[in-house]
Amino acid sequence: MRLLINTLLFLAITNLYSQNSIKGTVTNADTNQTLPFVNIYISNLEKGTYSDDNGFFQIENLPTGSHTLIISSIGYKTQSLTITVPNASPISVGLIPSAIEMEDIIISTPFHKLQSENVMKVEQEKMSDLKAKGAVTLADGITNIAGVESVTTGLGIGKPVIRGLSSNRVLVYTQGVRLENQQFGDEHGLGLNSNGVESVEVIKGPASLLYGSDALGGVLYINPERFAQANTSEGDVSGNYYSNTQGFNTSAGYRSSTDRFKFLFRGSVTEHSDYNTNNYRVTNTRFSEKNFKAGLGYQDDYFKTEFRYNLNSSKLGIPEDIGEQSTLKTPLLPYQDITNHVFSSKSTVYLNNSKIDINLGYIYNDRKEFEEHHHHDDEEHHEEEEHDEEEHHDEEEHEDHDEEILEAALHMKLKTFNYDVKYNLPRLGKFETIVGVQGMNQVNTNYGEEQLIPNATTNDIGFLATSHIHFEKTDVQLGARYDNRNINVVSGLQRNFNSFNGAIGLKTNIAKNLSMRLNFATGFRAPNLAELTSDGSHEGTNRYEIGNPNLDNEQNFQSDLALELKNEHIEFFVNGFYNIVNNYIFLSPDGTEIDGDPVYLYLQDDARLYGGEAGFHLHPHPLDWLHFESSFEMVTGKLSNDSYLPLIPANSLTNTLRVEFNTNSLKNVYSFIRLKTTFNQNNVSVFETSTPGYSLLSAGFGGSFTLFKNEATITISGTNLTNKTYINHLSRLKPDGVFNIGRNINLGITYNL
Fold first, then answer.
1. What is the CA radius of gyration of the chain?
2. Which of 25, 310, 411, 523 is 20 to 30 Å from the Cα of 41, by its Cα?
3. CATH code for residues 138-224+233-370+407-752
C-alpha cells in the first residue's frame, strides 16, 4: 500500500504546475437579470464561491481535467454542469425559477451527481432539517427518512434499520470511511454525534458492489461538515434544551480556509436524564456524551487531501426495569462506557483527465460494560495488562485500590484499518468508469472477565469496476465485484468467505416530467464473530446465545423500481422493492435454559422482504410558501416457511404541513405540523408479540435574524405533543412493557461568530 501511494504521489508531482481558473455569470433564465449570492460549488474539489452583486463569479487554483459545477440558489432549480479545465471562455448560467427545494450532490455513490441525475435512488437529508423536526440524537433523526427506522434501547442507544434489515446488514460510513464499532449487538449504538454533521444519505438496498460485505441491506452515509470556503473564516456556538429529559446539547466550532490550506474543529457535550413517559421515568435511560472533531486540508492544482479525527466518549445507561425516579444524569449500573476514535484520510491525485481517490481509515473502539457484582482497579491497570511482562506489577497495584471501584465485566478493543483506492479513468465518449480495490484489517481483543466474542483477526479485500453510460434519454450504470473475507479466531477456528456480486440499473424519462429508475443488484454478508462463535449469556439481551461455526454467506438479490413525477408545483414518487436473501442468519429459541437465561441458536434459512415507499409533495401556485407532504412506507419479511422475520418495522403514514418564507428582517423562517401514524404490527416472528398502532403529533417553527451584526437562529419543536403512551415495535424495552418517550419540547439556539 505504501508503494502504491508513493507511486501516485510521484505521478502527481510530475504534472506541470498551472494556475487554472474559471469565471462566469449567473442570470435568471426567464428575465435575464443577474443573480447575486448564488452558490457555485465544485463537488469533487469541495471548493466554491458565491456570485457577487452583478452575478459574476470566479474560482481559481483548479486542477486540469473535468469537474462537476453545481449552481444553486433558493427559489431556483439546481443546475449541474460538466466543465473542462483549462477553459478560457466565461461560463453563462441561466437558472430556472422553481419552488422545489435545492438539490445537493450525492456523495455516497461513486460518480457524485445530483439526485435527479443519479441512476440509484438515494435519500438525502440535511442534519439541520432533522434537528428542526425535533431529533434528539443522530439515531433518532434518521427515523425521519422514508424507509429508515431504528432499533432502540431507550433514547441513547439506537441503530439503523433499512427496509427491515439492520445490525451487520447495514453499513455505516463516516468521514468517508467504514465505521466499525462492534455493531453486531442489538444494544450497541452508532457511537456518532450529530454535531458537525452536514447531511445524511441512505442507500436502500444491496450496495455490496460499492462497499463489500455488510452492505447487503444498505448504507447509512454520514457526511461531515464542510470546510469554510477559500479565504473565509467562521465560527458558531449552539445550545439545545430538551424538556422531557431536562437534557442539553452544546456545541462550538470554528473553521477557516485560505486558497490552499483549511482547518476546522468542533467540540460538544451532551447530557440527558431518564426520559419521561406519561406515567413514569424509565430508569437508567440516562446518558452523557463528549465529542470532539477536527479536520485539516490542503489543495493544490494537482493534489487534494484532508485528514479528520473524531473522538466520541459516551456513558450509556442500560435500562432493566422501572425503579429509581430521578432526574440525575450519571448512569446507574449496568452501563456502557465507550470511547470511539475515528482517524480518516481522503486524498485525490489529479492526472490530467483522470484521477485517483485514496481513502484511509483507522477506527479504535474501546467498549466497556459495567455490572453490579464486578470490581476493578483503575484505568492504568487495564492498559498495562496488555503487556505480559508488567502483570506482576499490576497485581500489586490492584491490592492498593478500593474494592468498591467497579471493574468492567466486559471489555473489548476493536482496532480496524481500512482502505479504499479508486481510479477514475478518462471519460471515453458516453462512458465514465471507475476501478478500485478496498480492504480491511480488523483485530478484536478481550480484556474483561466476560467474553461475548473471542479474540480474532479479520481481513477483507475486494476488487470492483463500475461504469456510468450516458445515452441521449437514458443513463445506465453497471458493475461487478469480487470479495474475500478471512476470519482467524485465536481459539483455532478459521473461515474463508468469497463472493461475486454485480449490479445494473437505468434511469430514463418515460414521459414529460415522469422519470423511472430500475435497479437490479446482488449483495452478500459474511457471518460475524458473534454468529460463528457465541457461547454464553449476553447480559444486554438477557439470553444465552450459541453460535454456529458452519454458517455460510448470506447472499441476496434485490429488484428496485422507482417512479417520480415532478413539475413546478407537485412531486409524486413511488418506490417498490423485492429482496430475496438466501441463507438468512437469525436467532431462534430452542426451548431450554442455561443459568436462567433462555437459549438462542443461530440458524439459517432463505428469506424474502418486500414493500416500499410512496408519497407526494404539493406546493401550489401562487402559494409557493405553502407545502403539504405525505409519505407511506411498508415492509414485510418472511422466512421460506412463511413465518415472519423479527424486528420488522410496522407500516406508517406521515403527513406534514409546513410554511417557508423570508422577510426583510427574518430569513429561512419556517413552521410545520406533522402527524405520524404507525399501524398495528401483527406480522411478528414466533418469539415476538404484536404491537398496537399509535399516532404522534409534532410541530415546530424557527428562523434566522441579525443580532449584533451576526446571524442567530432559533428553533422550537415539540414531539409527541399529546403525551401519548405507546411502544414502538423495534424498542428493545418492549418485552418489559416499557413505554417510549413522552412529550418533549426542544429549544435550540445557534449564533454565528
1. 26
2. 310
3. 2.40.170.20
